[in-house]
Specification:
InterPro entries: Enolpyruvate_Tfrase_dom (IPR001986), Enolpyruvate_Tfrase_sf (IPR036968), EPSP_synthase (IPR006264), EPSP_synthase_CS (IPR023193), RNA3'P_cycl/enolpyr_Trfase_a/b (IPR013792). This is 3-phosphoshikimate 1-carboxyvinyltransferase. Helices cover 30% and strands 23% of the residues. Strands 17-18-1-19 form a 4-stranded mixed β-sheet. Helix 3 runs parallel beside helix 5, helix 7 packs parallel to helix 9 and helix 9 packs parallel to helix 11. The chain is globular and about 60 Å long.
Length: 410
């Protein structure tokens, strides 16, 4: 299936209720389970990832398929390793290509027994849940923050807690800070000094909690306002002081001419017309924003150099190469060291403006959402596999119709 995108006139001021953060929702679900909470989480995400997590936690079987849900795979690997029983945890074909060895090795050092059912170092996993013994662990700081968050959340529930030393450069730090802040909400105070995080053995306390709206989802609205100066957008449910590292999007887009104003009615985005000559940024803390910014900068003719992208190669797809491939279809010649950077120096190849351009999404929700606003610039844009957006933002296509981007299904 694909969507042929067209643009129409939209209202001057668009009001959008953003989806709940799946990053926060999935952490809250695990902490709710670990605290044996009787309370339901308010404003829980309706994303595929959160549904996958909820499905496992509410299941009475011992075999679980989380599909493409990366957070669910990592968090549940840790959770099930301490729940007595024999468990099978699998996912989509892409999930079977996403490494999990660092987390499995760490859990096995704590006394877990986890086996690979197919390829060494990758799901599916057979987990023999048992009592875990804490103590000291060392982990590279440049691995997926989801591995580290998974260990941190179970740490108070294992014997002696955990003293975790992160070696080298620490990436996606805001996600770790989010995890520790939510753990504190459930009554467990940790200590982070230098590169050492100490979590004591302590009982979680049940609590009534509400998930924030999603700053990552907000990034696509910033992109739309940057590309279409005639629209003003008010986003509902965002917190100015947020646990989400992706709230930094407001400062990034300020440099690209989008002003953010917080008020009781919501977060209002307007275009100021400001445009830099170049945009360089280290995405070490906000890797999920890289696709939005890459597409925006290209369409605004702003050369850029992005660094800190090492985790992009093990996301839903290899996002660095996916961006290079798909932006090339729009004429933009990007380059990368194929490790941790992405660069565009302004080089373009001519393309026929009226010709159809089909964007492949690689089963990656952020590819679909980052490229859809390009419809403001390209009159014949097609998005393949558009419903991949349900991974994090199920109402995305209905919402962007408010901004004047509609679709014909094909």
């Amino acid at each position: 299936m694909h969507y042929q995108l067209t643009t129409t006139t939209s209202s001057d001021n668009i009001q959008v209720q953003l989806p709940s953060s799946k990053s926060i929702s999935n952490r809250l679900l695990l902490l709710n389970a670990l605290s044996y909470s009787p309370y339901e989480i308010k404003n829980l995400s309706d994303s595929d990832d959160t549904k996958a997590m909820l499905g496992v936690l509410n299941s009475n079987t011992n075999t679980f398929d989380v599909g493409a849900a990366g957070t669910s795979m990592r968090f549940l690997t840790a959770f099930l390793s301490k729940i007595v029983g024999e468990w099978t945890l699998t996912g989509s074909e892409r999930m079977k290509q996403r490494p999990i060895k660092t987390l499995v090795d760490a859990l096995n050092k704590l006394g877990a027994k986890i086996e690979y059912m197919e390829k060494e170092g990758y799901p599916p996993l057979r987990i023999f849940g048992s009592n875990l013994e804490g103590g000291e662990l060392e982990l590279p700081g440049n691995v997926s923050s989801q591995y580290i968050s998974a260990l941190l959340m179970i740490a108070p529930t294992i014997e002696n807690g955990l003293k975790l030393t992160l070696t080298g450069e620490i990436i996606s730090r805001p996600y770790l800070e989010m995890t520790l802040a939510l753990m504190k909400d459930f009554g467990v105070t940790s200590h982070w000094k230098g590169n050492v995080i100490t979590v004591p053995e302590a009982p979680y306390q049940p609590k009534v909690v509400t998930a924030e709206s999603d700053w990552s989802a907000a990034s696509y609205w910033y992109e739309m306002v940057a590309l279409n100066p005639s629209i003003e957008v008010t986003l509902k449910g965002l917190k100015k002081i947020s646990l989400q590292g992706d709230s930094q999007v407001q400062h990034m887009f300020d440099k690209l001419g989008v002003k953010t104003k917080f008020s009781q009615k919501g977060t209002t985005l307007t275009n100021t017309g400001k445009k830099p000559g170049r945009f360089n940024y280290n995405f070490i803390n906000e890797p999920d924003l890289a696709q939005t910014l890459a597409v925006t900068c290209c369409l605004m003719d702003i050369p850029f150099h992005f660094t800190g992208l090492q985790t992009l190669k093990i996301k839903e797809t290899d996002r660095i190469n996916a961006l290079i491939n798909e932006l090339k279809k729009l004429g933009y010649q990007l380059s990368s060291n194929d490790i941790d950077d992405l660069k565009w120096d302004g080089e373009r190849a001519a393309i026929e403006q009226e010709a159809a351009v089909t964007i492949d999404t690689y089963k990656d929700h952020r590819m679909a959402m980052a490229f859809a606003p390009a419809a403001f610039k390209y009159v014949n844009l097609v998005i393949n596999d558009p419903m991949v957006v349900t991974k994090s933002y199920p109402n995305y296509w209905d919402d962007i119709a408010l901004a004047g981007i509609s679709f014909i299904e094909g």
